[in-house]
From TrEMBL:
Keyword Transmembrane helix: yes
Transmembrane portions of the chain: 12-35, 56-79, 91-113, 145-164
Protein name: Copper resistance protein D domain-containing protein
Superkingdom of the organism of origin: Bacteria
The keyword Membrane belongs to this UniProt entry's keyword annotation: yes
Keywords of the record: Membrane, Transmembrane, Transmembrane helix
Length: 165
């Protein structure tokens, strides 16, 4: 593959990674804390709409990161045969990055997102919080934060592997 084409694919890879990781982190560390200052009913309504809207977009970005990473390691990279995955340092790290990325995306899509929708769709705990009983909501949000933190851990692991490549 021509060097220029590889650089274009690398640029797309980095851009999509910024969207995927940045989007997840911005929602979790930027939007969520700001929403906590709103009334409970508004928090629930806004956050549910936000995660439902952003889910497909962020999933597509994550899928694009993985797809371009596969191209960068194989068609535009040094992995030419299956044995390269097991016998070269690059192949080992590339395979580790692929597995971590797939697990991170899968966790976000199938576990983190579903947990968030479950909590933000549970109107009763939000109504209880409005009436002063915040313990069930705090517990549910704490569980959601813990579950979503696994995705952040995956991003950190990916970054470490990318630095080692």
């Amino acid at each position: 593959m021509p060097w220029e084409m590889r650089q274009i694919i690398l640029g797309i890879h980095i851009f999509l990674a910024i969207i995927w990781v940045g989007g997840v982190l911005f929602i979790g560390w930027g939007v969520y804390p700001a929403l906590r200052k709103m009334a409970y009913a508004k928090q629930r309504e806004f956050f549910l709409a936000l995660i439902q809207w952003s889910h497909n977009f962020l999933t597509a970005a994550g899928t694009g990161v993985i797809a371009t990473g596969i191209v960068l390691g194989t068609l535009a990279g040094p992995i030419n045969q299956w044995a390269d995955l097991w016998t070269t340092r690059y192949g080992n790290l590339w395979l580790a990055a692929l597995v971590i990325a797939l697990l991170t995306l899968g966790w976000g899509v199938f576990i983190g997102y579903r947990q968030s929708v479950k909590v933000f769709s549970n109107i009763s705990i939000w109504e209880l919080a409005d009436s002063g009983e915040t313990k069930p909501l705090s517990k549910a949000l704490g569980t959601t934060i813990a579950i979503e933190s696994v995705e952040v851990g995956g991003f950190i692991a990916l970054l470490v592997v990318m630095i080692l490549l």
